[in-house]
Amino acid sequence: MAITKGSEILAHVGIGSDHHLPGENIKTFATKNVLGKKKSVIVENKMEIGCSHKDCQLNSAVIMPLTKKDEVIGVLKIYKIKENAISTVDIQLAEGLAKLFSTQIELAEIDYNAKLLSKAELKALQAQINPHFLFNALNTIVSMCRIDPETARKLLINLSNFLRESFKDQEDMVDIHDEIKHIEAYLEIEKARFGEKLNVIYNIKSGNFKIPHLILQPLVENAVKHGIYPKKGGGTIYLTVEENGENYSIEVSDNGIGFHESIEKPVNNGIGIENIDKRLKTIYGDEYGLKIESQQSLGTKVLLNIPKRSA
What we know:
By secondary structure, the chain is α+β, with helices and mostly antiparallel strands.
């Protein structure tokens, strides 16, 4: 599977990744054809693909244009190593993903241009959404199509929901229930990749209330990426939401590898952590920043409070 920006390869996973390298120009005639004619193509043999590398094992493909305002800005490609191997499921998957990405690209640009100055912190968080997560998710979905098309369909819906919530044009404050749904969509994709290595326990003890958008998902992603995955055998993410006097308390914790607090500065590490800390303090006051506790080999706990007067 591969994605390009114009004629530049952004990523290529699977057979052919030894010579279809990120940052290099595209090597296949079929891809150049899609960029030029602005139409999708299905190629059934090595000659039609037209890779300039003589030992390339790619023998069939479905290639879809990615568009922005009717302009082709890249392509999405699903390859197979056998000739005449492109199925109806492959075509439908490629079409769905291409439409999804094209829509998200346009929405992201509109949102960025319209609200760059007033929502700089939120945009910074959106920009930090991990491209490796996105590409790995797509690769998981493609692989799942072969063995479990129904699960692949559900994962594609989760990915669509995740991207829509991440980039959609909305106010800075959202319902906690919506933010939790956003987290659930992200974690379902990650659980499909890593199976029993990742477990999740939700402990929601409060009613609905407002929180800043994209406050919790980056905390969960950090717990997954830096706490659970490096741990042999995996572990568990815990999300707890409860009332605590004049505040709503939210805790994201894990039983992962942790870190030594005397060595590392947690607020400056990870996806969007410093950004989240600053946003909370700006909105609610300095006493409402993130509180991070960690013990090496035991796990990490991130706590934040939302005052009821503002929720």
